[in-house]
Write a structure and sequence with these properties.
CATH class: Alpha Beta
Number of helices: 8
Strand content: 15-25%
Structural class: alpha/beta
CATH architecture: 3-Layer(aba) Sandwich
Low-confidence stretches: none
Helix content: 25-40%
CATH superfamily: Acetylglutamate kinase-like
Number of strands: 11
Largest sheet: 9 strands, mixed
Number of domains: 1
CATH topology: Carbamate kinase
Mean pLDDT: 94
Length: 235
């Protein structure tokens, strides 16, 4: 495998499938199959998943909810999604452990880099919920932080689009895809890949990221094997 240890970033919205809210059982099953196949191929995988299918902090602010409290609600939403992906993986014989950026005893241990690395080296999929544990940070920033903490080879950002384009390919038929792009260029072009804090963390710590279509069967294992899929973002 080209990438031995990865941080897989999934959006909460992706778990909705064709629903308008919540978790689509079929999409959850499909993702679990993809992750299990990659683990069987020898990968070490940590997962960070957003909570936008349940609650997004900034949406709450627009409805009168305090920002700090709204972000706390969003972090709890990521824990719900993390439990869901863990429960989908376990019946497939995949050893999993749930860690959290917020203290939530009886459900998850508190996240730490050394602890996560120890589990990864023992063959566990490490699911990390609770964001960074602090308000005002997105799960993009959380995934960048966790990737650096676990000394990942790369961040794999699984989306419903097969890479990064000059514009939204779902809205602009003339949009063209990048095979490789730098963090600076993506920022200068205002491409909505990750937020600025996450970009800065990845750039300063020389953490590459690959954006790919997670919804195509077999893509995760192909990406980890080094096939030319998606868009690579580098320093």
């Amino acid at each position: 495998m080209k990438y031995r240890r990865v941080l897989l970033k999934l959006s909460g919205e992706a778990l909705m499938g064709k629903q308008q809210y919540g978790i689509d059982p079929q999409r959850l099953e499909d993702y679990a199959e993809e992750i299990a196949a990659a683990v069987r191929a020898g990968a070490q995988i940590a997962i960070v998943i957003g909570g936008g299918n349940i609650f997004r902090g900034l949406q709450g602010v627009g409805k009168g909810i305090d920002r700090v409290q709204g972000d706390s609600m969003g972090m709890l939403a990521t824990v719900i999604n993390s439990i869901a992906i863990q429960s989908a993986l376990q019946p497939k014989g995949v050893k999993t452990v749930l860690l959290s950026g917020i203290r939530i005893d009886k459900i998850a241990d508190l996240m730490s880099g050394p602890k996560a690395i120890e589990y990864l080296e023992q063959g566990y999929v490490v699911v990390i919920g609770g964001g960074t544990g602090n308000p005002y940070f997105t799960t993009d920033t959380g995934s960048a932080l966790r990737a650096i903490e676990i000394k990942a080879d790369i961040i794999l950002k699984g989306t419903r689009v097969d890479g990064i384009y000059t514009a939204d390919p779902e809205k602009d038929s003339a949009a063209t895809k990048f095979d490789t792009i730098t963090y600076d260029e993506a920022y200068d072009r205002n491409l909505k890949v990750m937020d600025l804090t996450a970009f800065t963390m990845c750039k300063e710590n020389d953490m590459p990221m690959l954006v790919f279509d997670m919804n195509t069967k077999g893509n995760l294992t192909k990406v980890m094997s080094g096939e030319k899929i998606g868009t690579l973002v580098i320093r």
